[in-house]
What we know:
By secondary structure, this protein is an alpha/beta fold.
Amino acid sequence: MKGGTRALGLAESYVGEAGRSTLAGAVVRADRVVDDFRFSACTVGGNDATDAIVELWRGLDRPDVRHVLVAGVALAWYNVLDLQRLHDATDRPVLAVSFEASAGLDEAIRREFDGDAADERLAAYRALPERRPVAVNDDTVYVRSVGCDDPARVVRAHTPEGGRPEPLRVAREAARAADRYRCPTDR
């Protein structure tokens, strides 16, 4: 992959302000150059994270972005993403990357939610594509993808060292910094 290939990394941070989680989008080239940022928010424990990311994407207006990478599939306390809808809205390959082996979220969702709230989250979670391990440098990440023929190649191209793709690392830091700015007394 060429060094100028751009990916949008998306990550969230929450420090306790009124049930809202900060979403940061960072456009980062494969050669680690940061090109742009955009911010949005979603409800902690809600079901609006997909809508918030679509809104962020539209506001970003970056046709040069080739891939969308998201840190996980259950942002902001089980606000489960719809990866197919993200792919349809962005017309880009979408990869959700997680960093730990897991037996899945079914049990945790049932423990934290009841009735329709649990059913909606479980249905959204079960509709996601299968999670596959990807060896990257000396680490393993777990990737779900929609519209991507070779997710391992994309993840590796955007991970120059360690196990966290650079667009996701930068987005996570941006979301945390935005939270510190908005809520300096909550830290």
